[in-house]
Specification:
Layout: H1 2-7, H2 15-19, E1 32-33, E2 36-39, H3 43-54, E3 59-62, E4 78-79, H4 87-94, H5 96-120, E5 127-135, H6 138-154, E6 159-161, E7 172-181, H7 184-197, E8 202-203, E9 208-212, E10 219-222, E11 227-229, E12 232-235, E13 251-263, E14 271-274, E15 280-287, E16 290-301, H8 308-323, E17 328-339, E18 345-350, E19 353-360, H9 366-381, H10 389-392, H11 399-422, E20 436-442, E21 445-451, E22 457-461, E23 472-474, E24 479-481, E25 488-490, E26 495-497, E27 506-509, H12 510-519
Parallel strand pairs: 1-11, 2-3, 2-12, 3-8, 5-14, 12-19
Antiparallel strand pairs: 4-7, 5-7, 6-7, 9-10, 10-11, 13-16, 13-17, 14-15, 15-16, 18-19, 20-21, 21-22, 22-27, 23-24, 24-25, 25-26
Helix pairs in contact: 3-7, 3-9, 4-5, 4-6, 5-9
């Protein structure tokens, strides 16, 4: 594993990105008008734009970065209604009827995707596979048994097993047949091609920052100062860019990690996930005449984990011990948000404002959830009845699960805020190595310092502009991560992920200083 340790400090890249080249679109350079603006070009936004355009609605799609640049390009790519041990939890917290609706909504999304792949003849390595949750302890074994009881109550087809097609010692497992896996970017490539044929305007590197006149004719403003006037706004970005409903306190962000190991034999059938911690997600993949095993897990709250190399190394050790795999061909990470009751927020931002729609908090199950979100939002725009609107409504309030989660998560956030304020970092000096960052003290001020590969130093204010928490340095991705609400920033302070809208204050940039000196 010595070579493995070395590789895990390098730049990350998913197999999906390495094997598909998505089309490139220009940024928005003028004011525009459309009927429906979709903000965020991951699976949710692309699918929603497709559904709306096919229904004859004039639609425009924008993204703050590149197409599928977030979770959709860094997923495990499982298409399933089995979201871990979710159904026993939902029955206990929101009731049997709503738990059943949750299953039906995801089942319909699974079927829509399968039918779309078949009808369109999309080549995206789509395979029907069973989804399996397995237990390795007696406590997890009992949880699996309760989940099977929930399946039976809800009429979900599923079976119990005491062995699985993996070299793991397990207590038991629950199997949901007829699920699927695929290559997400091959799939989205075809949807994008259809959008182009449907004359849908698509703009990359177009960051939406605010909405003016949200209740009449929304005007979405971009960072570059251009406006898009529309009748409806679909917020399909990683975190809602327009947040007047305090989503930062109603969701919590997590990072998770994935490695792809090339195997000599055929990969195992099935898509697997462990019932307990440490979380392990396992699936096979045949790609470009090679066989891979994808192993994911190591979830932690954003900004609160160890070095990414440590998380990747643990996955590599798991691959070595159980599968005899020694080298990772690729490794990557993703960020996901989870709601207080583990049910995504999909629908109208507020009951009294039908023009702003939101989809967020997919709890790491974005393939089916993103698709059902696209359908639900399309129905709302077209004023069609959707049986799942109430279940996923962002305006809902489920007292039992939400209050407890709200108190727990926000107490943890308060702890991170206090921890960041009372910590006393070392003074900034000249010993910071190249391509490294650190939290330091400069003239009594807490700052973030990064020295790039050329030796140039950049210093930013270490206080997150969202709610005043102190960021932490993520050496592996060269980002500043906020441990309170999950905002992430580039080394120079520019925003990567919300809820923060503003960049970290840039205090000093040696490269900029040298450039100005040369110009004068």
């Amino acid at each position: 594993m010595e070579q493995q340790n070395k590789n895990f400090s390098d730049d990350t890249s998913s197999l999906w990105r390495d094997t598909v080249h998505l089309p490139v679109f220009s940024s928005l350079k003028e004011n525009k008008t459309t009927d429906t603006l979709v903000v965020g070009a991951g699976i949710t936004g692309i699918t929603a734009a497709y559904m709306l355009a096919k229904s004859g609605v004039p639609v425009m799609l924008i993204d703050a970065d590149r197409i599928a640049g977030g979770t959709s390009g860094n997923t495990t790519a499982k298409i399933t209604a089995q979201h871990g041990l979710i159904y026993d939890h939902l029955i206990r917290t929101i009731g049997e009827e709503k738990a059943g609706l949750y299953y039906q909504a995801n089942k319909e999304a699974l079927h829509w995707m399968g039918k779309h792949v078949s009808d369109r003849g999309i080549q995206c390595d789509y395979e029907i596979q069973p989804a399996v949750v397995y237990a390795t302890t007696e406590q997890e074994e009992k949880q699996i048994e309760k989940e099977k009881e929930a399946y039976d109550r809800l009429g979900i087809l599923g079976s119990m097993a005491h062995s699985i097609d993996l070299p793991l010692e397990i207590k038991n497992a629950i199997i949901m047949p007829g699920q699927a896996q695929f290559h997400p970017l091959m799939y989205l490539h075809e949807l994008l091609a259809d959008l182009v044929k449907l004359n849908v305007p698509i703009f990359e590197e177009t960051l939406a920052t605010d909405i003016q006149d949200p209740k009449s004719e929304p005007l979405v403003m971009t960072k570059q100062g251009f406006g898009i006037r529309c009748q409806h706004v679909l917020t399909c970005s990683h975190f809602p860019f327009y947040d007047n409903r305090f989503y930062f306190s109603r969701m919590f962000p997590e990072r998770s990690y994935l490695i792809a190991c090339e195997t000599a034999g055929d990969p195992p059938d099935g898509m697997y996930i462990s019932a307990g911690a440490p979380k392990r997600s396992i699936r096979g993949l045949r790609l470009n005449h090679k066989n891979y095993l994808l192993i994911g897990g190591e979830n932690h709250k954003t900004g609160r984990g160890e070095s990414m190399a440590v998380h990747y190394q643990r996955l590599a050790e798991f691959a070595s011990v159980h599968f005899g795999l020694e080298t990772a061909a690729a490794h990557w990470s993703a960020q996901d948000f989870t709601t207080l009751d583990q049910v995504p927020y999909i629908g109208r931002l507020a009951n009294n404002n039908p023009r702003i729609l939101v989809a967020a908090g997919f709890h790491k199950w974005g393939m089916t959830t993103g698709t059902l979100a696209a359908q639900l939002m399309t129905d709302l725009v077209l004023e069609r009845v959707n049986s799942y609107a109430e279940l996923f409504s962002p305006a809902r309030f489920e007292a039992a699960p939400m209050l407890a989660s709200f108190l727990v998560e926000n107490m943890k956030t308060a702890g991170q805020l206090i921890k960041g304020k009372v910590s006393k970092p070392a003074p900034l000096d000249d010993h910071l190595q190249r391509d490294c960052g650190m939290i330091a003290s400069l003239h009594g001020r807490k700052v973030g310092a990064y020295r790039d590969k050329h030796g140039d130093l950049t210093v930013v204010d270490a206080t997150c502009p969202h709610m005043g928490c102190e960021v932490n340095w993520n050496q592996d991705e060269r980002t500043w991560d906020c441990p309170c609400h999950g905002s992430r920033f580039k080394a120079n302070g520019e925003v990567l992920d919300g809820p923060a809208k503003e960049s970290l204050a840039l205090l000093f940039s040696e490269s900029d200083h040298q450039s100005k000196t040369q110009n004068t």
